[in-house]
Amino acid sequence: MAAGGAAALDKAWAERWLRESARVIGEHREELIDLDRAIGDGDHGENMDRGFRAIVAKLDEDPPESVAAALKMAAMMLMSKVGGAAGPLYGTAYLRAATAVGDAAALDAPAVAAMLAAARDGIVSRGKAQPGDKTMVDAWTPAVEAAGASGEPSDGLAALGAAADAAEQGAQDTKPLVARKGRASYLGERSAGHLDPGAVSTSLILRAAVTAASGQEGGGQGGSGDGA
């Protein structure tokens, strides 16, 4: 499916994606805690790390039979293990993504775009945030747009790569924004100058999808560089 000899975006990739997401969330756990401490409860990194460790344990116990099954399992684990807003939001995202994938054995570029759009729309429906509100939607929306605009329909990895690049930029672009949703909104103008932790974790997870497909060594992205 993907160019350059990359692995097909199939059930094996979906499992690698979840495992790589767990690895990179664990690696950036303290950064996410620090980002959330500045404008939220300070528990985003801890909660996400706990949720993805539970996903890995479930993968070890009961490997999924399809891409959709992997995404649905991730949704169930995040909803049950992750506290705060992140569990329901990410859980809904993975659940909607699983529905969008359906019975596809592997994903091409349109399927990647549809999966990401469904995930983003699930987050919007659950959290009611819009672009510019300084939330994870500010990473998901450019990711969806970039995936939909990527070139060759058969190249799912290109769509994923475009989405990850756009999500990383979207996360960086939350820094000057004033939060209009969630606990960060209580700070008003004081929320400006900080990255949104949900947008950063989104960018980490989408980059993990690329790493899982492209055969790159683990290491993820460099993160935000903002520990404030």
UniProtKB/TrEMBL annotation:
Q: What's a Pfam family in this record?
A: Dak2
Keyword set for this entry?
Kinase, Transferase
Q: GO molecular function of the protein, one example?
A: kinase activity
InterPro entries in the cross-refs: DhaK_L_YcgS, DhaL_dom, DhaL_dom_sf, Dihydroxyacetone_Kinase
Q: Which domain of life is it from?
A: Bacteria
Q: What residue stretches are annotated with the DhaL domain?
A: 12-211
What Gene3D superfamilies does the entry give? Answer: 1.25.40.340
Which NCBIfam families does the entry link to? dha_L_ycgS
Q: What is this protein called?
A: Dihydroxyacetone kinase subunit L
Q: What is the lineage of its organism?
A: Bacteria, Bacillati, Actinomycetota, Actinomycetes, Micrococcales
